[in-house]
Amino acid sequence: MQVGLLTGPFRNEPLEDVIAFAGANGFDALEVSSGPGARHIDVTNLPDSRASEIKGLLEASGLVISSLAWYANMTDPNGREETSANFRLLIDAAEKLGVEVVCTLAGMPVPGKDKFQTIAEDAAEVFPPLVEYAASKGIKIALENWFATNIQGLAHFDKMFEVVPHENFGLNFDPSHLMWQGIDYCAAVDRFGKRIFHTHAKDTEVRDDKLAYLGNQERGWWRYVIPGFGRVKWGEYIAALRRNGYNGVLSIEHEDGAIGREEGFIKGKNYLRMFA
Fold it and tell me: Which one of 1, 117, 138, 152 has the minimum C-beta count within 10 Å?
């Protein structure tokens, strides 16, 4: 497996600096924050010369791009056509850079609808044309299972893949979103293994004292942390990924406010190397 990082925390710095940091510190891959106007890869302005320059920098640093990531609200009724058009540009950019996966969100529940209804009525309309466009270019679309989106629990996963069954439509699997909900993330890997195209390496710290005081319907008893600082059982989880045929990237998503940016990425990478 590869250990990589999501470039988002470096969003105010040039991609060249992120490549230099990742290469110098033993990472294998970058999940590059992209999209319209994005500093790292602006999908509205990626001439062939810039794509070639990026590929050369990556090769010189011993890195690859694991995915282009644009975490947009794909089911937002406002500006939906523009969002879909920009997502096609994301797919075009991936093709130009030789990247096989693009990551996004399943969208948020549409006002007045629950998650299941949004999947059945809105995701079913939005995603198939984009998935088919991606397939025509040999590219897979991976949805991060952020709990706030339409794929909070495994029943939502099932519904999403029922209405959009295409083989190149799957998950950017993140165990941290399932762990605090009490969902068995290893069982989820077993159930959806063929749909896992990319993974986020993020852990969850649970404060039992706060949980006992606040109850599980409130926030503030859990937080996202760097791998190894929380309760995800990484050995068991990575074993589940392996037995289901996943040998791709563990892309560290740094949302841990208690540890610095560079330190967090490096500590997370060093921890994951025990298993990957």
Answer: 138
Q: Residue written as tokens 């599980």?
A: 216
Q: 141 near 105, Cβ under 8 Å? A: no
> How far apart are alpha carbons 203 and 255 in whole angstroms?
9
Ramachandran bin of 263, using left for φ above 0, alpha for ψ from -120 to 50, beta for the remaining angles: alpha
Closest CA to 224 of 207, 237, 211: 207
Q: Which residues are CB-neighbours of 77 under 8 A, at least 6 positions away?
A: 110, 122
CB 180 within 8 A of CB 214: no
pLDDT digit string, tens, across residues 149-159: 999 999 999 99
Most distant CA pair in the chain, distance: 57
Give 141's strand partners: 102, 169
Domain 2-272 coded CATH 3.20.20.150: yes
* Residue 249 half-sphere exposure toward CB, CA atoms < 13 A: 29
Q: What is the pLDDT of residue 229?
A: 99
Torsion, CA 136, CA 134, CA 76, CA 224, rounded to 10: 170
Q: Tell me the C-alpha distance between 38 and 101, whole Å.
A: 18
Instruction: Tell me how far apart the alpha carbons of residues 141 and 128 are, in angstroms, rounded to a whole number.
Output: 11
In the chain, domain spans: 2-272
Residue 94 near residue 68, CB atoms below 8 Å: yes
What is the C-alpha separation between 12 and 33, in angstroms, rounded? Answer: 11
Residues 218-239 pLDDT 10s = 999 999 999 999 999 999 999 9
